[in-house]
From TrEMBL:
It holds the Pfam family DPRP. InterPro entries: Crypto/Photolyase_FAD-like_sf (IPR036134), PhrB-like (IPR007357), Rossmann-like_a/b/a_fold (IPR014729), UV-DNA_repair_photolyase (IPR052551). This is Deoxyribodipyrimidine photo-lyase. Residues 159-189 are annotated as: Disordered. Gene3D superfamilies: 1.25.40.80, Deoxyribodipyrimidine photolyase-related (1.10.10.1710), DNA Cyclobutane Dipyrimidine Photolyase, subunit A, domain 3 (1.10.579.10), HUPs (3.40.50.620).
Length: 501
């Protein structure tokens, strides 16, 4: 076979086989390689392993005779079996490890990356005009909006404001158990899923592979048709309610109005441009309010794009950033997603969501899971690996900046202006999780002291010197001096250690 094009498992949409500049020759034969070694290296959530394999196999079924689908131990072996020593093209992979692999192989030509809004050259140009301290999301997001004429009216942001975040941080409506949003799209499993499940069972029995979490009915799209149905369902029925309560956490309504599109975007099944264009069109048609459309566009054209480019921009050493010197290992209950071991209701609820589905929205990730780990001083690299393994949408490029930078502040503020962590009061304000909990968010000492509240103050205390010099954290750090019960609080934190709270 000559001139074949190789598709990685997260390059599954039409953009990855499109002809044209930097694209794939029309009708070029295609190669896909399912590597079992990937699943031996890490203990993945089983629903994630299922989704990845199901998506690859669905794509292969769609492409029919055009694709040679190889099941191999490693990519190297699979490629040799598929094409021998013939030349191959591949679009730029999404991880440094995969990029190093394709660059090390003879006869592989790397084409530009797909699946993002700006090219790496465009980002480099923008970054060159912004010294390190100016590489902020807000600056970048405005640049993308202008560059793509996205939600713009002439040179001005649609509606006159760039940022409607202020409208999108509402607490839950009083007494609400759910937001009553229209249900999200859920796929129906088929024979391909049944085959995946059999293979995973077999690997677990005899292939040296083990998983965490529940592999219940598949919840996320595995093919282009399913992904488009999910996007349509979101824009037509759920986008309108996306904005205002974006940050809320409700025990009985983990999804709220979130799009659930991250796994489809990260598998390459959806293109970010089609997502943001449809959201803008819905707003222009008067079907959704601007705060919802802008909030969603900000997530994709802002955050997702920003994170992708920072992954490459910050370099390999970013992975080991650890300015706070956090080295404690993750406890076994956390690693195993053992929600039953946990009494604190917010943490057990969120861990259970992850165990059951491999997904939670951004606030449980940031302000419950990430915040808890940050307060305890857990190793940011181990935590990054845990997030990567445990979430259906986790890939190296997206986890590294989100965990190392955004959630653990291990990069000392290259990505965010302050560490994101809080006491129980924030969780109480934004959720219904604290009411029946045995811990009290306002309590700092004694058996009912909320672990997030004690963890918050003890984190500020441990990093007092650094945080006093940050304008955004100096005030709470000074508050430490007014805590008469600080010694007792620190003793309690010490005694509780890393036991499940
Ligand atoms: P929505 O809330 O509906 O948002 C729409 C889309 O915006 C998402 O589908 C996603 O593609 C994009 N998006 C929003 N925020 C981010 C972000 N910070 N980084 C990248 N994309 C973003 N997102 C992932 O896709 N994969 C991850 O592995 C991942 N890990 C995270 C880890 C931590 C600690 C934190 C704080 C955030 C992480 N995120 C990750 C971002 C965000 O939490 C998820 O994208 C979002 O919760 C997915 O649900 P959704 O599709 O319903 O998103």
């Amino acid at each position: 076979m000559t001139g074949a094009h190789w598709l990685f498992g997260d390059q599954l949409g039409p953009a990855f086989i499109a002809p044209g500049e930097g694209g794939v020759p029309r009708d070029a034969p295609l190669v896909m390689i399912e590597s079992q070694a990937v699943f031996r290296r890490r203990r993945f959530h089983r629903a994630k392993a299922h989704l990845m394999l199901s998506a690859m196999r669905h794509r292969a079924a769609e492409l029919g005779d055009r694709v040679v689908y190889v099941k191999a131990d490693t990519y190297r072996e699979g490629l040799r079996r598929a094409v021998g020593s013939s030349p191959v093209t591949v679009h730029h992979p999404t991880s440094r490890a995969a990029a190093a692999l394709v660059n090390s192989l003879d006869g592989v030509t790397v084409l530009p990356a797909r699946g993002f809004l700006l090219t790496q050259e465009e980002f480099a140009q923008w970054a060159a005009g912004h010294p390190e301290g100016g590489l902020r999301l807000e600056n970048f997001y405005r640049h993308v909006r202008r560059r793509l004429d996205l939600l713009m009216d002439g040179g001005e942001p649609a509606g006159g404001r760039w940022n409607l975040d202020h409208d999108n941080r509402e607490p839950p409506p009083p007494g609400a158990r759910t937001l009553d949003a229209p249900a999200p799209y859920r796929p129906r499993e088929d024979d391909i899923d049944a085959g995946v499940r059999e293979d995973l069972d077999r690997w677990e029995r005899s292939g040296g592979v083990s998983f965490v979490g529940r592999d219940g009915p598949r919840l996320f799209p595995a093919g282009r048709r399913e992904a488009l149905a999910a996007l349509r369902r979101f824009v037509d029925h759920r986008l309108a309610g996306f904005g205002a309560h974006e940050d809320v956490m409700l025990a009985a309504d983990p999804v709220l109005s979130h799009s659930l599109l991250s796994s489809s975007l990260n598998l390459g099944l959806l293109d970010p441009a089609e997502c943001v264009e449809r959201a803008e069109a819905a707003w222009r048609a008067g079907a959704v309010p601007l705060n919802s459309a802008e909030g969603f566009v900000r997530q994709i054209a802002g955050w997702r794009e920003y994170v992708w480019h920072l992954y490459w921009h910050f370099g390999e050493e970013y992975r080991t950033s650890n300015v706070l010197g956090h080295t404690r290992p993750l406890p076994a209950w956390w690693d195993a997603l053992d929600a039953d071991a946990v009494t604190a209701r917010c943490l057990s609820t969120v861990l259970r969501q992850v165990g059951d589905t491999g997904w939670t929205h951004h606030i449980p990730r940031l302000m419950v899971l990430g915040s808890y780990a940050l307060q305890r001083g857990w190793d940011p690299a181990a935590l990054t690996d845990w997030f990567h393994r445990s979430f259906v949408d986790g890939y190296d490029w997206v986890m590294l900046p989100n965990v190392v930078g955004m959630s653990q502040y291990a990069d000392g503020g290259r990505m965010t202006t302050k560490p994101y962590t809080s006491g129980g009061a924030y969780i109480d304000r934004m959720s219904d999780l604290c009411g029946p909990c045995r811990y009290r968010p306002g309590s700092r000492s004694g058996a009912d002291a909320c672990p997030f509240t004690t963890g918050y103050w003890s984190f500020l205390h441990r990093h007092r010197d650094r945080l006093l010099h940050n304008a955004r954290t100096a005030m709470p750090v000074r508050g430490l001096d007014r805590l008469a019960d600080l010694p007792e609080l620190l003793r309690l934190e010490h005694d509780r250690g890393d036991a499940a709270p």
